[in-house]
Specification:
The complex is a heterodimer of chains A (269) and B (279).
Chain A (H helix, E strand, L loop, with lengths): L5 H29 L16 H7 L2 H34 L5 H13 L2 H14 L6 H25 L3 H9 L4 H12 L1 H17 L2 H6 L7 H11 L4 H34 L1
Helix pairs in contact in A: 1-12, 2-12, 3-6, 3-9, 3-11, 4-6, 6-9, 7-8, 9-12
Chain B lengths: L1 H35 L4 H13 L1 H34 L2 H16 L2 H12 L4 H8 L13 H25 L3 H9 L4 H29 L3 H6 L7 H10 L4 H29 L5
Helix pairs in contact in B: 1-12, 3-4, 3-7, 3-9, 4-7, 5-7, 7-9, 8-9, 9-12, 11-12
The chains are: A mainly alpha (269), B mainly alpha (279).
Chain lengths: 269, 279
């Protein structure tokens, strides 16, 4: 489109570099600031140190919230991936009544404002004394993690040839057997991504936790939130950097799996 | 075969039960029970009228829509060229642009908001730089006002715009652009007459998804906004946490849900056309 016009394409390239830089800059700023040596956040830092990381690791309340988030996210990702896998398989293979309505309903938690979901869940939980109960919070997180799992697994299951399943069934495999011995292994890369991203969804979730956590199950985002409302303490930069590192690790794992799979496919054909 | 049908529903049942029991029913129950507190239908009606007549609430609804609109337009202006570059890039350039969009996309919203608080705060980076160069004598107020909210929210919602536009732009057949060029059309003409019309449904879908997410947004406006930037989500939270006025919270929820679901239905019509529907 811009072949004959080098100035125009140069301007576009410069703009794209600028915008991409702008997307990454805020994240880079937090990571750099987390290593600052001074008493408050200065950018660029005058000296480097790990003091904010040590302060985070030496604070029992921060560590407790990290542990709470980890436990809740682990339960939520296993549960939402298991439930989501079964549903995604039925949706991918089935032409059943109300299919579109069911899909729309299951994806709804992504669209409905989280404040509404959180308040409604709080209304329910307060009446049954479930505020602060970790498995319950994990279950609540599963509701918002489920759409993420469905979207990831839908695209994975689409790439699995239904003829493989038919072949297994003709050879005498039961439906459950097909699911376990054919679909599950083939969908494994997608399942790992689903686990990773539903874990992240729960680990980063703030609003539902804010209402359901109480004092007993304060999660990391809730702890950050409470501290941000008071003052911007630099420990948050260290905590944030850990969360950013976790995101990048998840993305690298996901990328590696996809790369391995595409290599597998290209060598097997 | 009927057995097949039954097993389909058995597979989908756990997910359905989860969403109905922990999402649909709680919302219906919260709204229903809160309104029932008022007693009669007449009482609900008069409460709804007084809520809609209240300056604070009307103001919040207005503010919410204005902020959501400005954020949507900003995201479109920034997202369109970014998405165009992504859709035409190959190899390493493609990976690099994608990383710049996907890493923020999957980073916690609280962390991304905090990042902008570090940049725009009173002792933030922008003020430190401007003060040290002598361009200003006292710190600028870049945060705790509408400017801060719009910057923070645009940053958080931009990836949704870029990824939706990307789906529409990737689907454009580059031979159409070459044909237009071959027939002597100038780059701007090609853009206005060929590329833009072909990606317009993506523009609509992306704008709608950003607007939908913006009107229900809580974290960024609550952290970066000032007293004049109370949005609907913040108001619902305050009615419950501070005033414990459940009926008003329920009425606000109905209003927010009505806007969200109407726009979501509209979004579906545009998004289905681009094929790359990811929400």
């Amino acid at each position: 489109m811009m072949a004959g016009n080098s100035l125009r394409s140069w301007i576009l390239q410069a703009l794209v570099v600028l915008l991409c830089g702008g997307m990454l800059a805020p994240i880079a700023v937090v990571v750099v600031a987390s290593f600052s040596g001074g008493g408050y956040l200065k950018f660029p830092p005058e000296s480097l140190s790990l003091q904010w990381y040590f302060r985070f690791l030496g604070d029992a309340r921060w560590l407790a919230s990290l542990w709470n988030s980890f436990v809740i996210a682990l339960m939520a990702c296993v549960f939402s991936t298991a439930v989501g896998f079964l549903a995604a398989y039925a949706i991918a293979r089935g032409a059943f009544a109300f299919r579109n309505a069911v899909v729309a309903l299951l994806l709804m938690p992504l669209i409905v404002p989280h404040i509404v979901t959180a308040v409604a869940m709080y209304f329910l939980s307060a009446r049954f004394g479930l505020v602060g109960f970790k498995p319950w919070i994990a279950l609540a997180h599963s509701v918002v993690a489920l759409p993420v799992v469905l979207i990831i697994l839908q695209s994975t299951l689409k790439t699995i040839d239904p003829n493989l399943e038919r072949a297994a069934m003709i050879s005498g495999c039961s439906r459950a057997g097909v699911l376990r011995h054919v679909v599950l292994p083939l969908a494994m890369p997608g399942l790992i991504s689903a686990l990773l991203f539903s874990f992240l969804t729960s680990f980063d979730e703030l609003l539902i936790s804010l209402f359901l956590a109480g004092i007993r199950a304060e999660t990391l985002p809730v702890r950050i939130w409470n501290s941000l409302l008071l003052e911007v303490e630099p420990t948050i930069a260290a905590v944030s950097s850990l969360l950013i590192a976790m995101t990048i690790v998840a993305l690298v794992i996901e990328w590696t799996i996809r790369k391995m799979r595409s290599n597998e496919l290209s060598t097997s054909h | 075969m009927p057995l097949y049908r039954i097993s389909q529903w058995a597979l989908i049942a756990p997910a359905l039960v989860l969403v109905i029991a922990l999402f649909m029913m709680p919302i219906a129950w919260f709204v229903g029970a809160s309104l029932a507190e008022l007693g009669s239908i007449d009482a609900i009606w008069s409460e709804a009228k007084s809520v809609l007549g209240s300056r604070a609430i009307l103001g919040a609804i207005w503010t919410t829509n204005v902020i959501a609109l400005v954020v949507t337009i900003s995201a479109l202006i920034i997202g369109y060229p970014l998405s165009y570059a992504l859709s035409r890039a190959k190899g390493l350039a493609f990976s690099l642009i994608l990383i710049c969009i996907v890493v923020p996309y999957f980073t916690s919203v609280v962390v991304r908001t905090y990042a902008w608080m570090v940049i725009l705060g009173r002792n933030g980076i922008v003020n430190q730089v401007l003060l040290s160069t002598g361009l200003i004598n006292e710190p600028l107020n870049l945060m705790y006002n509408r400017l801060g909210v719009v910057i923070g929210m645009t940053y958080v919602l931009l990836p949704y715009m870029v990824l939706t536009l990307f789906g529409a732009m990737k689907a454009v057949d580059s031979r159409l652009l070459q044909a237009a060029e071959g027939m002597g059309a100038r780059p701007l003409t090609i853009f206005a007459k060929v590329f833009l019309p072909l990606t317009l449904h993506g523009v609509m879908a992306g704008s709608l998804i950003v607007f939908i997410l913006a009107i229900g947004f809580f974290i960024t406006p609550a952290l970066m906004g000032g007293t004049g930037d109370i949005m609907m989500a913040t108001l619902i939270e305050r009615e419950i946490e501070v005033s414990q006025n459940w009926p008003v919270a329920a009425l606000m929820t109905i209003a927010l849900l009505a806007i969200t679901l109407t726009l979501y239905a509209l979004y579906g019509r545009f998004a289905d056309r681009s094929g790359e529907r990811f929400v």
